[in-house]
Amino acid sequence: MGKKSAARQLGDNEAMAFAKMIRVSPQKLNLVAGSIRGKNVDQALGQLTFSKRRIAVTVKALLESAIANAENNHQLDVDRLYVAEATVGKAMVMKRWMARARGRVGRIQKPFSNLRLVVREREETA
Question: What distance in Å separates the CA atoms of residue 96 and residue 34, rounded to the nearest whole number?
Fold first, then answer.
């Protein structure tokens, strides 16, 4: 019995990796994601390796995961891969507080983000 498997949402020349609950604001994560959109994966890995932003380490690990998915699960050529999509979304926000002067309170928000990376194989140039 059982349920039938859902149709694949990506194309035959695409692979994806998804990270949930990354502890950084979506705005900061989108700056790093925007720096690798549309680039070849080797250029994107170099960009993330030498980036000064803390979250670049997490984005690099996710990109390596997407490359491994493309190679092992979908038999795509790693040399022809590029970052087709890098989508950032909001996750939850932890709300904390800090005591301030005269019995007041200062609200602290600790946002989380989601990141979806899609790598695509370039078409052969004949």
Answer: 30
Owner of token pair 């995961």: 65
Domain spanning 15-121: which CATH class is it, in words?
alpha beta
Please tell me the pTM assigned to this model.
0.91
The secondary element (H helix, E strand) that includes residue 112 is strand 105-121
What's the confidence (pLDDT) of residue 50?
A: 98
How far is Cα 39 from Cα 90, in angstroms, rounded to an integer?
24
**CA dist 62 → 6, 51, 72, 97, 113 (Å):** 24, 15, 15, 32, 14
Q: How far, in Å, CA of 98 to CA of 104, rounded?
A: 9
**Domains in the chain: boundaries:** 15-121
